[in-house]
Amino acid sequence: MASLGALKRSMALTLILIFGMLFFLLVVISTLLQWYMAGTFIPFWFQIIVIIFITILFVLLQWAISPSVIRWSSKLRYLRAGENPFLENTVRELCQKSGVPMPKLAISPDRTPNAFVFGRSKSSATLAVHVGLLEQLDKDEIRGVLAHEVGHIKHNDMTIMTVVSVVPLLAYMMARSVFYARGGGKKGGAAIIVAAVIGFVVYVVSQLMILRLSRQREYFADAFSAVATNDPHSLSSALAKITYGLSLSKENPGPARSFYIGDPLTAKREIGAIMQNRHKYDLDGDGVLDEKELMLAMEEEAKRRRHSEIRSTHPSTFKRIQNLKEMEKDLKHGGMSADIYKRI
User: Fold this and answer.
1) DSSP at 258
2) Residue 344 within any structural domain of the chain
3) How far apart (Å, rounded) are the C-alpha atoms in residues 88 and 91?
4) Of 149, 218, 270, 328, which residue is the catalytic one?
């Protein structure tokens, strides 16, 4: 059984572990460098200061420029006050209900159905919606998606993910730099190999830890939406439509991929699996899966399939819908538990 405290502990543990691994990698490289440069003495306290300085510098750089990169790559246009009353009023209502600062609202011209939040903090967050989402979903489904995104702001997900994502990047850069360094003799070669191997191990392990945290935060945001709207079904329906819509896209996902409510790569894999059994779910035999048939397929796949998610930024849509169905049952049988995250 999960709780909001479990998410906070998971975030804290992930931060400690991945930055601990990065610190260890930097110490190893510094030690091997000093060993390789025999006769050169660098005080340990000075090494530690340099290591901490480099880490903080990269984290601050990532934290500072990431919103600008996402804003530019997504071609966002910020909404003027009163330009889209439905979006503005819905987000304001959800934020007031949840005690979250009102984010800036933006529209992306992307025709795929998606939405995401990003920013340096809760108070500077931007909630962006794709044009495709507004075109393909009804208002109840859009409200469920908006509540999901407000949940990310409430949990401060975008800040945490922005900060932790710098670690595998740093580890990879250092591993490559060390590996392609030119050293003389067996001594130098051995030092380079050891440092490079440790660097790649830190890169892989930290990346897997971040992906796990990313999947976990999606479950928590789904649960938040279910309670905030009192309507888990609308988010389930939205996820089914989003997944199908994303599976049709031929474009590569941009830098904001990990922030999206739906991952295009996961969607293509999941819809591909459903299409292999299309005859089973095409109840009216017209050769096309309508909305109800697609929802049925999603629910059945949630029970039947056990996809490996270890390399995915998002959990299986099948599993997300299954969790929301359980929350819907809770509402029909006396209301949601005080612990809104117990189904995670």
Assistant:
1) G
2) no
3) 5
4) 149
Tokens representing residue 79 in the block: 């909404």
Number of domains in the chain: 1
**163 inside domain:** yes
135 is catalytic: no
For 171, other C-beta atoms within 10 Å of its C-beta total 25
How far, in Å, are 94, 239, 292, 298, 303 from residue 281 at the CA level? 36, 18, 10, 10, 14
172 lies in some domain: yes
Q: What domain range includes position 167?
A: 4-332
For residue 145, give the nearest of 240, 222, 248 by alpha carbon.
222
pLDDT means per 10 residues, the chain with 344 residues, are 65 83 80 66 72 82 88 93 96 95 96 94 95 96 98 92 85 76 57 80 90 90 93 94 87 75 85 74 67 72 62 87 86 64 56
Residue 243 in any domain: the answer is yes
Whether the predicted model's global pTM rises above the 0.90 cut: no
Alpha helices in 37-84 (DSSP H): 44-73
